[in-house]
């Protein structure tokens, strides 16, 4: 038999209660922003603080700062000289948000290809392992659910690498560089000079 837990506002000197509703039994709290229910073991608010910081980028601005740290008032004064308004912590975006990931050296295609070629992971692992899928999701990648699609992704990435090597070698040849290629057990060795 499941019981319905009622949540209500709670007046306290801890800032976390501005963002959470407390259960009647005091054993859990519900986030006002995302409706996540978090246990408050032994009436501790540590989990609530962690949730606010990790999920909503909200920190307690009134917590004690070490003496050797720069004061927040001097930082805010210096920052206000640079820009008239700063977005609130919950609305800030990471700088990497403004750059496309697809063409970076750490693209999903590169990571999957490297894990299959170098680490020997089978393609089926990328489809069946929820933990691996969650890791990719945490980095902002949506991993395909089909092993055929993943195989094509790895093959296409391999083809782009081959084309890159061919182009680099063509440029070396056109500029008069001399080099030799040696293929041994699946490895390509390029030696050259001017």
From TrEMBL:
Coiled-coil regions, chain positions: none
Domain BED-type: from-to ranges: 11-63
GO molecular function: DNA binding; zinc ion binding
UniProt entry tagged with the keyword Iron: no
SUPFAM superfamilies on file: beta-beta-alpha zinc fingers
Keyword entries, A-Z: Metal-binding, Zinc, Zinc-finger
UniProt keyword Zinc-finger, yes or no: yes
InterPro entries (alphabetical): Znf_BED, Znf_C2H2_sf
Pfam families assigned: zf-BED (PF02892)
The protein's name: BED-type domain-containing protein
């Amino acid at each position: 038999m499941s019981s319905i837990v009622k949540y209500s506002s709670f007046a306290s000197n801890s800032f976390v209660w501005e963002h959470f509703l407390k259960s009647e039994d005091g054993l859990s709290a519900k986030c006002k922003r995302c409706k996540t229910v978090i246990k408050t073991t032994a009436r501790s608010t540590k989990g609530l603080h962690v949730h606010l910081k990790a999920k909503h980028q909200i920190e307690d601005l009134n917590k004690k700062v070490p003496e050797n740290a720069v004061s927040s008032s001097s930082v805010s004064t210096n920052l206000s000289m640079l820009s008239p308004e700063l977005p609130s912590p919950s609305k800030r975006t990471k700088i990497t948000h403004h750059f496309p990931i697809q063409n970076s050296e750490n693209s999903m295609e590169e990571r999957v290809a490297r894990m299959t070629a170098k680490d020997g992971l089978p393609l089926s692992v990328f489809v069946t392992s929820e933990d691996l899928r969650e890791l990719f999701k945490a980095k902002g990648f949506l991993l395909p659910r089909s092993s055929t699609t993943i195989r094509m992704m790895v093959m296409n990435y391999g083809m782009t690498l081959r084309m890159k090597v061919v182009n680099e070698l063509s440029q070396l040849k056109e500029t008069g560089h001399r080099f030799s290629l040696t293929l041994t057990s699946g490895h390509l060795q390029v030696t050259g000079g001017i």
